[in-house]
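Input structure tokens:
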């Protein structure tokens, strides 16, 4: 820890970031973040069970750190984890069994591994996939009409649609989708009691073992019989002429299956709630569907499904004059960056026509979300299908947010509606 860190009296507001339950309470979280942006934008946080870190809450600082990817590394700590979970993950990796996904890697290795899947997310691939995504969007809006006049929009609709899309892109059989659904929830909802498999890090690591067993079998089968899907591209992907290691291969599936699912579910359900809570914006969008592009972007800014990523200093440095020592980690508060008063006009206003909208919900720089175009397309398809058919919609109960420091959003959104 640097001398400055030891001298600092910790800002109570900053502790909130190290409390998973705060992320299930929008008002509490945003009050703390607004305070930090105004008074303590590089805030020291020492609050167990996490290792000490620096919370970065200004949009400009988040971008500057992500841009300087030779100074600010993803290794060894790409995201906030308890010290115990952090140590266990490290030990598992050293034992040759663990998770090392794109988000854990730094260049030059990161660039080479990212290139293996990149073609599957480019505009051409997206155009090829659009028919399938539109078809799935229609299927889920039809389902919503069928089960109406009430549903839990998260568990009945928002969860399944993006999972279906990403598993189709991977090329997995439909009968395995239920199992993947449970595993991704257990993995990403790790802090939330409703999703937790067990209380110890070992029990939670068992989720990873299940993932690895499933995808280990898939790799073997795609190497033997390559097919035209993303799973084959990953299984047969090469770095410097060599097939990827087992850890890198299996981790690739994990990042695609998990990052491509819960995040989009959170943006879709957060987007619908924002429209319900802002009826004038809902009417504006229904009246002019050409606003869908900016509306989707605003839904993503508004919900910011990925709360944070971390970077660790490769050498002694400073941010806004605050010294940060080599080896210390910074927490990039995307939720805060996306409400930064210096960047967004009236950041707490939901505006379906917001332009420009330079949010950091997909991160920035070399790790910029690989699936951003896919997420945008999915949301566009779903809301373009849903809104013209929706005569009315209102809350049928209290929306509930998940308690997690990482990927999260609504876990329940009870709605009552009339849908054609
Ligand atoms: C609204 C939905 C989504 C949000 C908010 C989101 C957000 C993010 C963020 C913040 C990052 C880290 C960026 C950084 O460190 O600078 C990321 C990385 C990533 N995302 Fe997404 N994501 C979404 C949907 C998707 C989808 C649909 C996929 C499809 C597979 C996906 C795959 C990935 C992958 C593979 C990475 C790692 C990229 C790298 O480290 O090079 N994401 N995403």
């Amino acid at each position: 820890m640097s001398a400055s860190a030891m001298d600092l009296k910790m800002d109570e507001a900053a502790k909130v970031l190290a409390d998973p339950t705060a992320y299930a309470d929008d008002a509490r979280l945003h009050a703390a973040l607004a305070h930090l942006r105004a008074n303590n934008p590089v805030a020291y946080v020492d609050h167990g069970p996490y290792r000490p870190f620096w919370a970065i809450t200004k949009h400009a600082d988040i971008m500057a750190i992500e841009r300087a990817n030779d100074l600010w590394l993803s290794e060894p700590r790409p995201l906030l984890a308890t010290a115990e979970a952090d140590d266990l993950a490290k030990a598992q990796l050293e034992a040759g069994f663990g998770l090392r996904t794109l988000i854990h890697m730094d260049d030059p290795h990161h660039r080479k591994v990212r290139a293996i899947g990149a073609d599957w997310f480019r505009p051409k691939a997206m155009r090829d996939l659009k028919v399938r995504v539109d078809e799935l969007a229609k299927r889920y809006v039809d389902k919503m009409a069928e089960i109406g006049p009430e549903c839990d929009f998260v568990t009945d609709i928002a969860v399944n649609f993006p999972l279906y899309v990403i598993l189709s892109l991977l090329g997995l059989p439909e009968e395995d989708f239920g199992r993947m659904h449970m595993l991704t929830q257990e993995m990403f909802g790790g802090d939330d009691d409703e999703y937790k498999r067990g209380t110890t890090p070992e029990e939670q690591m068992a989720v990873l073992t299940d993932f690895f067993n499933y995808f280990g079998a898939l790799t073997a089968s795609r190497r033997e019989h390559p097919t035209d899907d993303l799973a084959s591209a990953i299984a047969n992907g090469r770095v410097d002429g060599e097939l990827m290691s087992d850890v890198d291969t299996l981790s690739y599936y994990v990042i695609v299956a998990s990052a491509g699912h819960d995040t989009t579910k959170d943006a879709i359900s957060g987007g619908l709630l924002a429209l319900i809570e802002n009826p004038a914006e809902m009417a504006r969008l229904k009246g002019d569907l050409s606003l869908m592009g900016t509306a989707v972007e605003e839904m993503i800014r508004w919900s910011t499904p990925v709360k944070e990523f971390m970077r660790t200093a490769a050498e002694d440095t400073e941010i806004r004059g605050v010294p940060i020592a080599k080896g210390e980690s910074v927490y990039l508060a995307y939720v805060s960056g996306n409400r930064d008063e210096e960047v967004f006009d009236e950041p707490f206003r939901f505006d379906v026509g917001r332009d420009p909208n330079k949010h950091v919900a997909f991160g920035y720089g070399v790790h910029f979300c690989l699936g951003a175009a896919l997420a945008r397309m999915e949301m566009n398809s779903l809301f373009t299908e849903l809104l013209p058919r929706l005569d009315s919609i209102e809350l049928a109960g209290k929306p509930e947010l998940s308690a997690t420091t990482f990927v999260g959003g609504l876990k329940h959104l009870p709605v009552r509606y009339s849908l054609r």
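DSSP finds 18 helices and 14 strands in the chain. Residues 3-419 form a domain with the Cytochrome p450 fold (CATH 1.10.630.10).
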